[in-house]
Write a structure and sequence with these properties.
By secondary structure, the chain is mainly β. It is 0% helix and 40% strand. The protein folds into three domains: 96 residues, Beta-1,3-glucan-recognition protein, N-terminal domain (Immunoglobulin-like); 96 residues, Beta-1,3-glucan-recognition protein, N-terminal domain (Immunoglobulin-like), CATH 2.60.40.2140; 56 residues, Immunoglobulin-like (Sandwich), CATH 2.60.40. The chain starts with 25 loop residues before the first strand and ends in an 11-residue tail after the last strand. 25% of the residues are buried.
Length: 345
């Protein structure tokens, strides 16, 4: 994984490459409660991520109260639907959306806001499941004052394996889970000596899709933990079926340490590699960071933030993995931020 920080560049716009425009999201508020956010299921889109919060402005790419990835279309749309939250006239939904294409590129639409003005009865125009009761795998149920008897069947549930946390000497740590064949993606979110609330993004916010020695591993090599420090973290896995599961409110205190030369994951090749010099282009709105496609590179990870220096391997304001090159380059493209003279990326 390559983390690239570009500081103090004077940039010249040379050309503009093809750009994917995220379709305009549709927001529907229901009566008596609930809402829906959707976009058309463009065939180029592999994943639609929704992040939102009620009556509180999200800053940048904050995780939000709702933080959901959608990989399957319903009636020609990629849909996030909440059935329990009540909006009244004048309330608003602050949100942003992210899409990942089948090419591996990701795009954001930030700083979106929808005020609750019109409402639709929930029995009309809401998406109905086309699965039978024996096929359903995930149900969102609002139950008020009911006594329920389970009479027919219990659906399979995936239990995320217990994470293993290792603290290194003189610095660094590792969090891993076994590489279960059902798991497509392992996401780690963590922070040192500060409790994460719910699904906060955290200082570290990394997706892992490839196993190392039979494990899905996040490893940091720069952060120093001393005895009594603690790691607050949560993890998320996405299965090949498209379902996602969380383990929240996890915490590990630094008590025992392993010398970094022992039991840490080694690179499969002892030969050093020099990362190609990144090329940065600024557009009238947004920017692009890219490196040339070279033999042996399977993933280009970009981490960046605007006008704030990095301290170690932070996730940053932008944190994206690119696995497929376009026109001979691995490219991270951002189209929502307007850069001004003197800004530092």
């Amino acid at each position: 994984m390559l983390s690239i920080i570009v500081v103090g560049l004077t940039l010249l716009i040379v050309s503009v490459y093809a750009q994917f425009d995220i379709p305009e999201p549709e927001v529907v508020f229901y009566e008596p409660r609930g809402f829906r956010v959707s976009i058309p299921a463009d065939p180029d889109i592999k994943l639609f991520a929704f992040h939102g919060r009620k009556n509180e402005q999200l800053q940048g790419t904050d995780a939000g109260t709702w933080n959901v990835d959608v990989t399957r279309a319903t009636d020609g749309k990629l849909v996030f639907e909440d059935s329990t939250t009540k909006f009244s006239r004048g309330d608003y939904l602050s949100y942003w959306v992210h899409v990942v294409l089948h090419s591996g590129q990701g795009y954001n639409r930030l700083d979106l806001r929808e005020e609750a003005k019109d409402f639709i009865p929930r029995t009309q125009n809401s998406f109905q499941s086309d699965w039978s009761s024996t096929e359903a795998t995930m149900l969102s149920i609002a139950v008020v004052g009911l006594t329920l008897l389970i009479a027919s069947s219990v659906y399979a549930q995936f239990d995320i394996p217990e994470p293993e946390v290792v603290f290194y000497e003189p610095r660094g740590f590792r969090v891993s889970i076994p590489a279960d064949p059902d798991i497509k993606l392992f996401a780690f979110h963590g922070r040192k000596n500060e409790q994460l609330q719910g699904t906060d993004a955290g200082t570290w916010n990394v997706d892992v899709t490839r196993a190392t020695d039979g494990k899905l591993v996040f490893e940091d090599s720069t952060t120093k933990f001393t005895r009594g420090d603690f790691l607050s973290y949560w993890i998320h896995v996405v299965l090949h079926s498209g379902q996602g599961y969380n383990r929240l409110d996890l915490r590990e205190e630094a008590k025992d340490f392993v010398p970094r030369t022992q039991n840490s994951f080694q690179s499969p090749s002892p030969i050093g590699y020099e990362v190609p010099t990144p090329e940065v282009k600024v557009f009238s709105r947004g920017f692009e960071v890219s490196i040339p496609e070279e033999e042996g590179i399977t993933l280009f990870a970009f981490h960046g933030q605007l006008n704030q220096p990095f301290t170690g391997l932070q996730a940053g304001q932008w944190a994206t993995d690119i696995t497929r090159p376009t026109e001979g380059r691995f490219r991270f493209t951002e189209r929502s931020t307007r850069l001004k003279p003197g800004d530092i990326l």
